[in-house]
User: Which sequence fits this backbone?
């Protein structure tokens, strides 16, 4: 240790009076100083052990004594017994599932230095043999090393060499930690690895690791470094991560579904996040066949007209939309212990506006994989409302034309207002407003929309149209023309310029049902609110009218 036992006892004497119910506890020094590492900035880590079955707090208390920061943790014998038992039970199943926090607690105690009540300290240390624990640590680090190197090999297939080199670096560290753990060096924190290797003496594998500890230090190119790292990992005793392109396959990610609307492809993750794919990204997505080697999937993507598909599939992988797998052994799940948790990345939301059009969410470009800036359920509800608003526009226009033909001026005026408000429902829905404000408020609630060329043009025209009076054929004709122009502007803004005339013909109604059905299927999957009750009948009929006989 870098501190004398007398110094430690002095610090402990100052600590005990400040801790409640500490008088009868055993005390150990744990952590880097107990390991023989540490420096002048290292904490003094005291663990107080109560010979009881109490449920003591996990959070440490901090004291500042003689220029040192002292951390005090407490555990009861019952808690320590459960701690070691948890390690033993999981080790027999899948050592990679053990949490680093649990292993760290056990390691620190097993390698601690007793300061008070050594008999009780020996009793709790006897709950697990150090030889069994070092085997567990060896297997745990080997599991993570194997996953990291496999992930690096998958990224290499996708042309992501720099990222693959970074994961190779992580895998090598984990592999050498596994190798060192098998030789008694079980301390988890990687920052002391150089001192652990120094303590092991002149070992050829230590020298080899130091040469390849990082891409920069190795002097190799990324591809050479990945291959060399995989070889050294095997030499360090970690099997199952040998370079073999046929072993890396593409696997389905749980909770991910695909929803096309027209030509636009949406991918929904965990019923929460919606990703919209640009045309090039959609071609790459459609080329993915689960269970096939990643190299074959890439070749199929290139053949389908998705050039440079590697970066796109790598992005699908990062966002958790697909998984890489090791043939015969399931998904590759890389992690960097004692670092930020790994898992699916969530990118910043897309800034494209409007958010949703009749044909699908707005995508930022050919190769876009954009996160829609709305929860999936609200997104689908807004999209269904957008489609339904266009149906209401067609219905109100039909009523307006009929009223004008009969010179029913009051009816015409009400129909014109319905036509305007239905169009504005669509505008608000397209920009993500859901639920909608009442119809009486839609004109004023245009203030919710961001500034922009389209919305700046829509606002004043909507205010003008809301005040239109119809008391003559001339006024009625002018109102119809103005409303048709306004609807054309709204539909251009919301991607509905090709919306069919729903009530003019059987073909127009069929097209309307087809558009609505795509969105209704997504909405039903997400348990979103349907725009009208009758929509459930359209779902039940598979997109067909419910009463017509089939031919």
Assistant:
């Amino acid at each position: 240790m870098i501190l004398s036992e007398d110094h430690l006892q002095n610090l402990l004497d100052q600590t005990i009076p400040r801790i409640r119910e500490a008088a009868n506890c055993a005390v150990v020094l744990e952590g880097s100083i107990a390991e023989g590492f540490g420096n002048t900035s290292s904490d003094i880590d005291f663990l107080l052990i109560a010979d009881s079955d109490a449920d003591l707090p996990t959070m440490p208390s901090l004291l500042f004594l003689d220029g040192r920061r002292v951390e005090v943790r407490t555990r009861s014998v019952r808690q320590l017994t459960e701690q070691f038992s948890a390690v033993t039970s999981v080790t027999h199943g899948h050592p990679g599932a053990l949490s680093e926090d649990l292993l760290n607690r056990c390691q620190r105690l097993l390698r601690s230095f007793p300061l008070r009540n050594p008999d009780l300290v020996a009793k709790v240390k006897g709950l697990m043999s150090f030889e069994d624990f070092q085997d567990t640590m060896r297997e745990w680090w080997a599991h993570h090393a194997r996953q990291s190197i496999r992930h690096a090999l998958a990224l290499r297939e996708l042309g992501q060499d720099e990222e693959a080199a970074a994961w190779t670096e992580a895998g090598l560290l984990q592999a050498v930690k596994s190798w060192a753990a098998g030789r008694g060096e079980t301390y988890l924190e990687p920052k002391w690895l150089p001192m652990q290797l120094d303590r092991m003496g002149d070992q050829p594998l230590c020298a080899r690791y130091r040469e390849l500890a990082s891409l920069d230090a190795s002097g190799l190119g990324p591809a050479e470094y990945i291959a060399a790292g995989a070889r050294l990992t095997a030499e360090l005793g970690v099997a199952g991560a040998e370079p073999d392109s046929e072993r890396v396959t593409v696997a389905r990610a749980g909770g991910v579904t695909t929803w096309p609307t027209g030509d636009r492809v949406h991918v929904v993750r965990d019923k929460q996040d919606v990703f919209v794919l640009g045309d090039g990204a959609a071609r790459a997505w459609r080329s993915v066949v689960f269970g096939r080697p990643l190299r074959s999937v890439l070749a199929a993507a290139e053949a389908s007209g998705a050039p440079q598909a590697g970066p796109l599939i790598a992005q699908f992988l990062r966002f958790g939309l697909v998984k890489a797998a090791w043939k015969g052994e399931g998904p590759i799940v890389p992690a960097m212990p004692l670092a930020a948790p790994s898992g699916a990345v969530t990118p910043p939301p897309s800034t494209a506006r409007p958010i949703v059009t009749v044909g699908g969410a707005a995508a930022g470009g050919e190769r876009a994989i954009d996160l829609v800036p709305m929860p999936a359920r609200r997104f689908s509800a807004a999209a269904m409302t957008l489609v339904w608003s266009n149906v209401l526009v067609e219905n109100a226009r039909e009523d307006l034309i009929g009223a004008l033909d009969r010179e029913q001026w009051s009816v015409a005026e009400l129909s014109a207002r319905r036509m305007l408000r239905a169009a504005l429902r669509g505008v608000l829905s397209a920009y993500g407003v859901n639920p909608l404000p009442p119809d009486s408020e839609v004109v004023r609630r245009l203030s919710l929309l961001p500034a922009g060329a389209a919305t700046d043009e829509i606002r004043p025209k909507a205010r003008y149209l809301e005040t239109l009076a119809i008391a003559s054929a001339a006024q009625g004709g002018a109102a119809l023309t103005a409303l048709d122009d306004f609807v054309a502007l709204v539909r251009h803004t919301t991607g509905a310029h090709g919306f069919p005339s729903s009530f003019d013909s059987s073909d127009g109604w069929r097209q309307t049902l087809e558009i609505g059905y795509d969105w209704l299927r997504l909405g039903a999957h997400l348990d979103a609110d349907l725009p009208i009750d009758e929509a459930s009948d359209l779902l039940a009929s598979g997109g067909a009218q419910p009463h017509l006989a089939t031919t």
About this structure: Residues 444 and 542 are 38 Å apart (CA to CA). The domain at 5-128 is CATH 3.30.460.10 (Beta Polymerase; domain 2). Residues 376-405 form the longest helix (30 residues). The two ends are 89 Å apart (CA to CA).
